[in-house]
Amino acid sequence: MTKIIQFNTARLLLRQWKASDQAPFAALNADSRVMEFFPNLLDRLASDEMADRIQSQIAERGWGFWAVEVPGKNSFIGFVGLSIPAYEIPASPCVEIGWRLAREYWGKGYATEAAETVLRIGFKTLHLSEIVSFTALSNRSSRAVMERIGMQKTDENFEHPCVPEGHPLRLHVLYRLSYKQWSNQFA
Q1: Which of 56, 73, 43, 46 is nearest to 16 (CA)?
Q2: The domain at 7-185 falls in which architecture?
Q3: What's the whole-model pTM score?
Q4: pLDDT digit string (tens) for 144-155?
Q5: Dist CA 155 CA 135 (whole Å)
Q6: SS3 content of the chain, % helix, strand, coil (to 5)
Q7: 101 forms bridges with which residues in the sheet?
Q8: Beta bridge partners of residue 159, listed in sequence order
Q9: Less Cβ crowding at N or C end of the chain, within 10 Å?
């Protein structure tokens, strides 16, 4: 049986998903501001299917896009974690770090705080040699998080294979961080 990784940061708990996370996750995925840099909003069925996939990946590997909660304040604010993209990008095969938080939790440093700890888990516990991240070229907020956690922008911009041709969000920017770069900065 795979041991599921769960951990705390200074203010957050990152954990396996629960059935009670699905309703707030669906609300998050239906928020046009949260989903501004995705090609479309997710309806309840698509959101629940995504949550089920994420939960299954964590159960299988012990890690993934962990549910994030603010202990004592909110039992679910979104996700932060690691994933293996199911599609080809210039860095493939790779492990990506990503996040999606409810809008009312933006601007509090939660994404950065959780992502810094996720990088530590990825490099120190999972012994990954590199972690990547990517987003739509115009997503300045996520790019700022990537830069705060030490990721390096590459010149490997690419057209995201899951975004329709001609869509304004198709062009993505790729960031990379090797274990060596991370350990020189943060270890």
Answers
A1: 56
A2: 3-Layer(aba) Sandwich (3.40)
A3: 0.96
A4: 999 999 999 999
A5: 14
A6: 35, 25, 40
A7: 78
A8: 171
A9: N
Structure tokens at 25: 């996750």
CA dist., res. 103 & res. 166, Å (int): 28
Q: Is residue 74 classed as helix, strand or coil in its secondary structure?
A: strand
Residue 70: alpha-carbon gap to chain centroid: 17
Q: Render 75-98 in DSSP notation, one character per residue.
A: EEEEEEEEE--SS--TT-S--EEE
Q: How far apart are CA 62 and CA 49, in angstroms?
A: 19
How do residues 76-120 score in pLDDT, each as one tens digit? 999 999 999 999 999 999 999 999 999 999 999 999 999 999 999
- What type of residue sits at position 159? E
End-to-end CA distance of the chain: 30
Q: What is the residue type of 103? A: R
- Per domain, the residue ranges of the chain are 7-185
The residue whose two tokens read 């300045």 is 140
